[in-house]
Write a structure and sequence with these properties.
Distance between the termini: 28 Å
Strand content: under 5%
Shape: globular
Largest sheet: 2 strands, antiparallel
Number of helices: 8
Helix content: over 70%
Oligomer: single chain
Number of strands: 2
Amino acid sequence: MLGAALAGGLFLLLAAIAFIHFPHGTLIFLGIFLLLQELLAVNLEAGSTGVAQSFRHLDELLVSIFFILTVFRSLLKKKHFFKTHIEIPLLGFILVAIISSLIAKVPPEIAAIQLFLYLKGFLLLFILLNLPVDRRVVRRYAVFFTGAGFVILGLGLVDLIDPDWLRAVTGNDPFVEIRYGIPSIKSIFVH
C-alpha cells in the first residue's frame, strides 16, 4: 500500500504541475480520465480493492487541487473571480443540504462528503470560468471530446456485435444483459 500511496502522491503532484502550466490540456485529460475511471478501477480490483477504491476518489482530489490552484492563481494576479450568477442559489442549496443533514442526523463526515460530491460540478464550472478561454481553446475541447465520443460509439458497436470479446479485452464486467433480444451495450462503461 505504501508504494501505491507514493505513486498516487506523485501523480497528484504531476497533475498539479501540469494544471499550472497547461490548464486546458490537463482538464481534457481529466475528462478522459472521468470517462475511463470506473473501468480502470474495476481492472485494479483484481490486484487490490484498496487501490481500486482510492482510484475511484481520485477525481475528487484532482478537482479540489485544481480549484485551489485556480483560486491562488486569481489571487496572485489580483484578478476578480468570474461571476456566474448562481452563487446565491448555490448558497441556498448548501444551506438546505446542511439543514436536511442535521434534521436527518446524518453523521458530519458523511454529510461533508456528500455535500462535496454535489458541489464537485460547481467547482469544475468555477475552474473553467476562471481560466483564459478563446475560440481556439473551445474548438480544441469540442474536437477532442467529439473524437472521444466517436471512439466510445465505435466501441459500443463492437460491444453490440461481440460483447463477450470486448468485455474480456477491456476487463469490463462480463455479464451481458439482454434487453428486447439485444445485448445491453456498455462500451467503455461499467454499468
